[in-house]
Specification:
Belongs to the Vsr family. With 279 residues, this protein is of the alpha+beta class. It contains 6 helices and 9 strands, in the order αβββββαααβββαβα.
Length: 279
């Protein structure tokens, strides 16, 4: 999906854009305004914003014109606990409001400002609500990750959370054991293309297929980069039992302690305790 927003210039230089390019029709009721946003976004469920803690809000795109710039600017707006939140999307330069709204929604979706609810409508998630949480794609402290950390901690292993194992490499492990040089990644089934549960998207299939393929390639590159630096990578799918996964991690740590992460030198054992701060 390619955004049609322009951050630098629009189609109008001398005159202000025509009203039909940005101004909504007067007298529209709430249902009509909602329907207009739904059509532009590609569906009612394409407008959800992740608020954290499993909460979502339905966003809308607002178009504004400023007389000094003679440009149409698009904003994504939603409400969180009674407070209006706004994100600037950029400038639009189509000749109709319908096209400009659609262009703005393309940008919101491209930037992952909204939850891609319909990206995998046939996924293994049991309901739209579950898919909303699953696809919120939080960068850390997801439920599977927290469960895995608790299980590992229960085995008496100490670890670091959300750290870059190799300086200069912008890849962060969910759990890291620096002494044994073991990096653990908790991978979401949808975003990392789980062979058991991933289902291709039905809408915007080219865009989402390329995105998941890119994630897989990045994972492979991360594994290779860390291996070259002497680290061992363990990847845990979100559907895996956290207790069993923790046991597998502990076994690897034990082996690495015995042989040393570089295949010879003994490593300092990880100490039992709570999570250590990230760096």
């Amino acid at each position: 999906m390619t955004s049609r927003l322009s951050m630098e210039s629009g189609s109008w230089k001398q005159d202000s854009p025509p009203a039909r390019a940005w101004k909504g029709r007067s007298g529209l009721d709430r249902a009509a305004r909602t329907a207009e946003q739904d059509r532009a976004a590609g569906g009612h469920d394409r407008r959800l914003v992740d608020l954290g803690d499993g909460r979502t809000a339905r966003a809308s795109v607002e178009l504004k014109v400023f007389s000094k710039t003679r440009r149409i600017r698009a904003y994504l707006r939603w409400s969180d606990r009674g407070r209006t939140r706004v994100r600037y999307l950029g400038e639009v330069s189509e000749n109709t409001r319908t096209r400009n709204l659609a262009s703005a929604w393309c940008t919101a979706i491209d930037r992952e400002l909204v939850i891609p609810l319909d990206a995998a409508p046939s996924s293994w998630a049991s309901s739209p609500a579950v898919r909303a949480v699953m696809k919120a794609n939080r960068s850390r402290d997801t439920k599977p990750e927290l469960a895995l950390r608790a299980a590992v901690r229960g085995l008496g292993l100490r670890y670091r959370v959300d750290v870059a194992p190799v300086m200069g490499l912008r890849r962060r492990a969910d759990l890291a054991f620096p002494g044994a040089k073991v990096a653990v990644f908790s991978d979401g089934c949808y975003w990392h293309g789980c062979p058991e549960h991933y289902r291709p998207a039905r809408r915007n299939s080219d865009f989402w297929s390329a995105k998941i393929s890119g994630n897989r390639e990045r994972d492979r590159d991360t594994d290779a980069e860390l291996a070259a630096a002497g680290w061992l990578v363990i990847r845990i799918w979100e559907h895996e039992d956290p207790v069993e996964a923790a046991s597998r991690i502990a076994n690897v740590i034990t082996e690495r302690r015995a042989s040393g992460p570089a295949g010879g030198m003994k490593s300092k054992p990880e100490e039992a305790g709570a999570d250590t701060p990230r760096t």
